[in-house]
Specification:
Strand order of the largest sheet: 2-1-3-4-5
Radius of gyration: 18 Å
Distance between the termini: 20 Å
Largest sheet: 5 strands, parallel
Oligomer: single chain
Helix content: 40-55%
Strand content: 5-15%
Number of domains: 1
C-alpha cells in the first residue's frame, strides 16, 4: 500500500509538521506492508517563493542561521519586512483559492502552485493521500488541492487514489458541509488520527472506508 501524507500551505516557514511524521510511524508499525511518504508542501511553497524573489535568499539564510543574528534589531527588522511581504503573497493566494472553490476560476499564480503540488504527489503513485490541516489559513489551500488532485485522478468512486483530510481544523468545522463543498474528499478524520488512519489503509483498494 502506497500512502502519501501532505502538509499544505499556509503555515510558518519554520513550522515542522510532526503530526504527519507521527502518523507515518504508527501506520508503518500497524500495517507493515505500507509504504508511507511525507511531503511538506508548505515548506516547498515557501522555498519556491523565496527563490523567485531577489530578497528571498536573505530570508532563507537568516532563518537557517547562515547570515545575520537574531539579536541584532536592525537585521531582524529587515528580515521581518521580507517575511511580511511573503505572508501577504500567501494571503493573496489563499483568496485566490477561495475564489477557485466558489467559482472554478483559477488565477495563474494559484494554478502554478497547485500544478506543482499535484505533480509531486502523483509522482509517488499513491493509493491514499492524507491532507493534514491544523490552521484556518490552510483550509483554502487544502480544499483546492483536494479538488484538483481528485479531478486529476481517473475514475470516481472506484478511482485508485483516495483522499482523506484530517488535523485539528476538522474538529472546528462542519464535516458534512466540507464534504459537500469538496466532494473529491473521500473521508475526514476528526480527533486523534493514528488509529483511524491505520484503519483506512487496509480498506484499500476496492473496499469502503470505515465509518
Amino acid at each position: 500500500m502506497r500512502v502519501v501524507f501532505v502538509f499544505p500551505p499556509r503555515a510558518s516557514a519554520t513550522y515542522v509538521p510532526l503530526g504527519i511524521a507521527s502518523l507515518a510511524s504508527y501506520i508503518e508499525l500497524a500495517v507493515p506492508e505500507t509504504l508511507v511518504q511525507l511531503m511538506d508542501l508548505n515548506l516547498a511553497a515557501w522555498i519556491k517563493m523565496t527563490k523567485d524573489d531577489i530578497q528571498g535568499g536573505d530570508l532563507i539564510d537568516f532563518v537557517r542561521g547562515n547570515r545575520g543574528r537574531f539579536t541584532d534589531p536592525d537585521q531582524t527588522i529587515h528580515v521581518k519586512s521580507i517575511w511580511d511581504r511573503f505572508r501577504q503573497e500567501f494571503t493573496a493566494l489563499g483568496r485566490q483559492a477561495e475564489t477557485f472553490l466558489s467559482t472554478g476560476e483559477t488565477a495563474p499564480a494559484l494554478q502554478a502552485l497547485l500544478d506543482r503540488q499535484v505533480r509531486s504527489i502523483l509522482a509517488q503513485d499513491p493509493e491514499l493521500v492524507g491532507i493534514s490541516v491544523l490552521f484556518p489559513e490552510q483550509m483554502p489551500f487544502a480544499a483546492a488541492l483536494a479538488r484538483v488532485l481528485g479531478q486529476s485522478v481517473p475514475g470516481t468512486t472506484d478511482r485508485r487514489c483516495r483522499i482523506v483530510m484530517g488535523g485539528a481544523m476538522m474538529s472546528a468545522l462542519s464535516v458534512p458541509d466540507l464534504m459537500t463543498a469538496v466532494p473529491e474528499i473521500d473521508a475526514v478524520v476528526t480527533g486523534e488520527g493514528e488509529e483511524a488512519a491505520a484503519a483506512y489503509v487496509p480498506a484499500l483498494p476496492g473496499r469502503k472506508f470505515p465509518d
